[in-house]
Structure formats: C-alpha cells, structure tokens
Amino acid sequence: MTFTIAIDGPAAAGKGTLSRKLAEAYGFHHLDTGLTYRATAKALLDGGLPLDDETVAANVARNLDLSRLDRAVLSSHGIGEAASKVAVMPAVRRSLVEAQRAFAQKEPGTVLDGRDIGTVVCPAADVKLFVTASADVRARRRHDEILASGGSADYDAIYDDIKRRDERDMARADSPLKPADDAHLLDTSEMSIEAAFQRAKSIVDAAL
Ligand code: C5P
Description:
By secondary structure, this protein is an alpha/beta fold. The chain has helices spanning 15-26, 34-46, 54-62, 71-74, 77-86, 90-103, 117-121, 135-148, 155-171, 193-207, and strands at 3-8, 29-32, 109-114, 127-132, 184-187.
C-alpha cells in the first residue's frame, strides 16, 4: 500500500518547496501538478493553437509525458496565466487527473501538490495539507525570488497577477481551489519555510 500526501493552496504559498522537502525526507515521489497544466498550455502556445478549444486542449493533455516535465521551461508568469485558462476546461482536467491518479499509486509513497489534490485527485490521501499565505506575503516572496535570481520585478504587477489567478482558480466551476474538509490548514504568512516544514512533518509522522 502506498502512502499519499496531498498539498493544495494558492500560487506562491510555498507548497512547491514544502512538497519537495517532504518528498525528500520520506523518499517519496513528487509531482507538481501545476506543471501538467503549464505543459499543456505551453504545448498549445508553441503549436499556435487556441487556449480555449476544449477538444484540442484535451488531446494535448492526454498525450503529455509526465516524466518529461521541465520546471525551468515552464516557470514563466505568462505560462502560469495561460495554464489557469486551460485549467478551467473539464475535458483537460479529466485527462490530467487520470495521469495524476496513476502517479499517486507509486510505491513507497507520493507527494502531489496543486489546487484540487485533496478534494478531487486523491480524496482518500493519507495526509492533506492546505498551505496558504496572505496575497501580500506571496507577492513579496515572488518579488524577492525574482530579484535574487537577477531579474527585475514590479511588486504591484506581481500582486495583481496573484489576485487574478486566485480569483480564476477559486471561481471556476470544475474543481475550484478550496481546502478539503479533512485538510490541515497551514498559514505560512508569518512562518519560515523551515518552520512550515517541521509542522508538516509532525502531521505526516503522526499519520504514518
Ligand atoms: O501551481 P502553478 O502556478 O504551477 O499552477 C498553474 C495553474 O494551473 C494554476 O493557476 C491553476 O489554474 C492550475 N492548476 C489546477 N489544478 C492543479 C494545479 C494547477 O487547476 N492541481
């Protein structure tokens, strides 16, 4: 029997770092499901295909190779924005959720992070975490990250972008972003990533 950790939350809440650290600590496989939506959007953009044709987009999603998702080429703001448009289409979600569920079966355990892991993809996950932080804190973290990597960043634009993406993710009819009833809430607004990791680890340890 495999062990599944489901981590959900809005953009830039720290769930990616937390998921990677948890996967490393327990020797589990990790899937950032946001990358599956991003890869679908990028394939459409690269092919000059529309972002809002459900049949075309679902076809692209069905043919995605999960073992070849490259964070480096999928991380841009523009692709994140396009991903959240592609993610509203039920046929796209059905294809990607099927692949995500297959991934979740891997032994000895898995960590999946996204928006609907605890509610839709893995409703029977052994541990569910909902990671949040205020929009201001998330925008500031993104901003500082970009500056630290030598880029230039406009705080107000990043803040607006985060608010817009939150709204689209929470308002969509299919699999909106919301905590599962049995999720542990982790607000990282005033927490270091190390403190959030220790808290998450104690929750997982209690369930192992
Ligand atoms: O987490 P990330 O920013 O990479 O996700 C990009 C977009 O993909 C999100 O804004 C969201 O619309 C979509 N997504 C989703 N369900 C998931 C993961 C991501 O709808 N499980």
